[in-house]
Amino acid sequence: MTTAPRTLTAPLDERGFALVLHGGAGGRVEELSLEVKADYDAGLAAAHRAGEEVLAAGGAALDAVCATVAALEDDPLFNAGRGAALTASGRAELDASVMTGDGAAGAVAASRWARNPVQAARAVMERTDHVLLVAPAAKLVRSWGLETVDPEHFVTEARLAQLRRVLAARQEAPRHGTVGAVAIDAEGRIAAATSTGGMVGQADGRVGDTPIIGAGTFARDGVIGVSCTGEGEAFLRGAVAHDVTARIAYAGQEPLAAIEATIAAELTARGASGGLIAAGPTGVVVAHNSPAMFAAYREGERLVTLT
Ligand code: ASP
């Protein structure tokens, strides 16, 4: 379901950096009980803090987005890492990607062993000659110095119950929960990261936009970094994260205009719903045409959380 596009912006922190995160695009906020909403708000705030602390200490945008996304992966409320949406056969097949604005990128698809898929994506970027690895083996993940877990670690009772409801067609596949973060650090370096379990009840082996550089994630220093969420097939067809970047870099559009134009052309016009977050030299943007989107960013003293 799509609605009139909504965009929110904030300038860079007075300390010269910014971090924006999302917790997925989906249905209306009213669907959440107050109690659950408070839990989501707390999860978003904690994850924002994890990344912002890195930036405040003079750390790199890459470290900040990885810290934020790992915190959300560890929170079972979100559709990434533990508590991820399950495939039709009840498996957690996790996709994640990371990109830095100097052109480095790494991703994993259908990951089953790495406790934090975003760290595995980063390892692909930093420790291999490749950009995307499908289903990296536990041994390989451990050789990168990363923690592995039994694939059952990711499967929660809540997600199994949700899968049963969706497969019995008693519930439309719910959305929300894919996570991502984009940051620009005090030195102007941009990084973006995204992580998901995909769509509830998706075919085993289905890979969405999240681990595809240029679709779900993209970053270019001096231009913008983007992390997407929503109906992945539309983001793949429209190369959405790169489309936003190209509009700014080649057509000279302002970030907000570029984002609105991409959402209109690649999502709304095609009947697809979703959203994206972005950060660049002028600040951060949260934009979506889905009824709601979970996100967090700072506006001066105030941490804004959207649920
Ligand atoms: N874009 C993700 C996918 O298609 C899902 C989401 O963001 O909700 O796998």
TrEMBL record:
Substrate binds at residues 206-209, 229-232. InterPro entries: Ntn_hydrolases_N, Peptidase_T2. One of its GO terms (molecular function) is beta-aspartyl-peptidase activity. The keyword Hydrolase applies. The active site is at 178 (nucleophile). It comes from the Bacteria. Its EC number is 3.4.19.5. Keywords: Aminopeptidase, Autocatalytic cleavage, Hydrolase, Protease. It is an enzyme of class 3 (hydrolase). Coiled coil: none annotated. It holds the Pfam family Asparaginase_2. The record marks 177-178 as: Cleavage. GO terms for biological process: proteolysis. Gene3D superfamilies: (Glycosyl)asparaginase. This is Isoaspartyl aminopeptidase @ Asp-X dipeptidase. It comes from Brachybacterium nesterenkovii. The lineage of its organism: Bacteria, Bacillati, Actinomycetota, Actinomycetes, Micrococcales.
